[in-house]
Specification:
Elements: H1 6-9, E1 21-26, E2 30-34, E3 47-51, H2 53-63, E4 69-76, H3 79-90, E5 98-101, E6 114-118, E7 127-131, H4 147-154, E8 156-162, H5 163-166, H6 170-185, E9 189-193, H7 198-201, H8 206-217, E10 223-225, H9 228-235, H10 252-265, E11 271-281, E12 284-293, E13 297-300, E14 304-308, H11 315-328, H12 333-347, H13 359-366
Parallel strand pairs: 1-4, 1-8, 2-6, 4-5, 8-9, 9-10, 10-11
Antiparallel strand pairs: 2-3, 6-7, 11-12, 12-13, 12-14
C-alpha cells in the first residue's frame, strides 16, 4: 500500500531510478536585457540574463532543488544563441534537446528572442518589451524532437510547458500538443502554466484563439497552474463581478469557486495551483497562493502581506517550481503549496527571471522562518 498522500499518489509518478530526468521543460529561452534600476528608453548599458516562462521552472528545480533537468527548445546558431546556451549550461540543464538552426546572417528567417525588461519601482510598474518574432523556438515543429527517445528511452518524471510557448506560432501550439500527448503515453506527469499574455495573442486571434488552443491542450494536463486572469482568458471560466483587466484584488473564495468549476469540466486535473497577488505598488505586493486537489479541496498557503519586491518577473515560475518540487518529493499538497509560495517570494528579492535561492532558504521560509541574519 502506498504511503504517499492521496493527492500525490493520484499523480502516479514514475520512479526516479527509471528516468534520466526528473523534469523537462518545453519553451523558448530568451536573452533578457535588464537596465537595472533605470529605464529601457534611457539605458546605456544592460545586464544580460536568460529567461522564459517554461524554462524558468526547470532551471529552478535544478538550481534551487537539485533535481535533474533538461530543456527542449531551439536557438539560431550565432553568437547570441551561443550566449544563451552558455547561460542555460550555467543553470545546470541538459542541452541535448536544444535544436540549432542555421543563421542567415541577418535574421530574415530565423533569430533568437530578446526580452527587454525594467523592474519598476513604487508607482512605476514593471515594463517588458519582447522582440521575438521569427525565432528559432517559435519554428520548432512537432516532428523536430525525438519524443520517443526523450520520454521512452531516457524517461522523464515530469514535463512542464505553458501558454507562453503555445502562443508563439501555430507551429509551437502543435509542438506543445505533440509533447503533452506523447508524455502521457509514456506515463510522464504533465504540468502547464496558462500564463496568458495579451500581447502574444492579439495578432493571431486574440482571446478567442487563446481559448481554442488552451482548451485543446487542457485535457492532457495533470497539474494546471494559472492566476485568475489566466483561467478566465485562456479557458473561459468567468468570476462574476471581476474584470480580468481591472487590477482588482481577488477574493480567495471567488477564485476557489472558479477552480471547482474548471475541475468539474476537466476531471483530468489532479492538482490546480495559483498565485494570489494584490498589487499595492511595483515594489510592495500582497503575496500568497492556493491549490486544489480532489483529495484536499482548496488549500491556502502562508499569506505574506506587504511583501517587498526587487524584481517580480519570474515569481510565478518560481512558485510553480516550488510546488512541483514538493509533489515530486512526495509531500502533502499543503507543504508543496507552501514551498511554491515561499520560493516565489524569495525569487522576487533578487534580479533576473531565474532563482538565486537555495532549498534550505525555501524550506526555512515555508516553515515560518524570518529574515534574521544567518550566522
Amino acid at each position: 500500500m502506498s504511503t504517499l498522500p492521496p493527492e500525490v499518489a493520484a499523480l502516479d509518478l514514475k520512479p526516479a531510478a527509471d528516468c534520466r530526468y526528473d523534469v523537462v521543460s518545453l519553451g523558448e529561452v530568451m536573452l533578457r536585457l535588464d537596465p537595472g534600476e533605470g529605464r529601457i528608453r534611457t539605458a546605456r548599458s544592460f545586464r544580460a540574463w536568460e529567461g522564459g516562462g517554461e524554462y524558468n521552472v526547470a532551471r529552478g528545480l535544478r538550481r534551487a532543488f537539485g533535481l535533474r533537468g533538461a530543456i527542449v527548445t531551439a536557438l539560431a546558431d550565432n553568437e547570441v544563441g551561443r550566449l544563451v546556451e552558455d547561460l542555460i549550461l550555467t543553470g545546470g540543464l541538459d542541452t541535448e534537446f536544444v535544436q540549432w538552426r542555421a543563421y542567415d546572417g541577418i535574421g530574415r528567417t530565423v533569430r533568437n528572442g530578446l526580452n527587454f525588461t525594467e523592474r519598476g519601482f513604487g508607482v512605476r510598474g514593471a515594463v517588458g518589451v519582447s522582440d521575438r518574432g521569427h525565432t528559432a523556438a517559435s519554428q520548432l515543429g512537432p516532428d523536430d524532437v525525438d519524443w520517443d527517445r526523450l520520454f521512452g528511452e531516457y524517461g522523464v518524471r515530469w514535463l512542464h510547458t505553458g501558454g507562453i510557448y503555445a502562443a508563439l506560432s501555430e507551429t509551437s501550439a502543435e509542438t506543445v500538443f505533440a509533447a503533452v500527448t506523447k508524455a502521457k503515453e509514456y506515463g510522464t506527469v504533465v504540468s502547464y502554466d496558462l500564463n496568458y499574455r495579451p500581447s502574444l495573442w492579439k495578432s493571431i486571434g486574440g482571446i478567442d484563439k487563446a481559448r481554442e488552443v488552451n482548451r485543446a491542450i487542457a485535457p492532457h494536463i495533470d497539474v494546471m497552474i494559472g492566476n485568475e486572469e489566466d483561467f478566465t482568458a485562456s479557458l473561459g471560466f468567468e468570476i462574476e463581478g471581476t474584470d480580468i483587466h481591472g487590477g482588482e484584488e481577488l477574493e480567495v473564495d471567488k477564485f476557489a469557486a472558479m477552480i471547482r468549476t474548471a475541475a468539474a469540466e476537466f476531471p483530468n486535473f489532479k492538482v490546480i495551483g495559483t498565485t494570489m497577488r494584490g498589487v499595492r505598488t511595483a515594489t510592495i505586493n500582497d503575496w500568497g497562493a492556493i491549490a486544489w486537489s480532489p483529495a484536499t479541496g482548496v488549500l491556502e498557503s502562508i499569506h505574506r502581506p506587504n511583501l517587498e519586491i526587487m524584481d517580480r518577473v519570474g515569481g510565478g515560475d518560481s512558485f510553480a517550481s516550488g510546488l512541483v518540487y514538493g509533489l515530486l518529493d512526495g509531500q502533502p499538497l499543503q507543504v508543496a503549496l507552501d514551498y511554491g509560495a515561499a520560493h516565489g517570494a524569495l525569487a522576487m528579492t533578487t534580479p533576473g527571471d531565474t532563482t538565486m535561492v537555495t532549498k534550505a532558504e525555501v524550506l526555512k521560509l515555508a516553515g515560518g522562518g524570518s529574515a534574521r541574519v544567518d550566522r
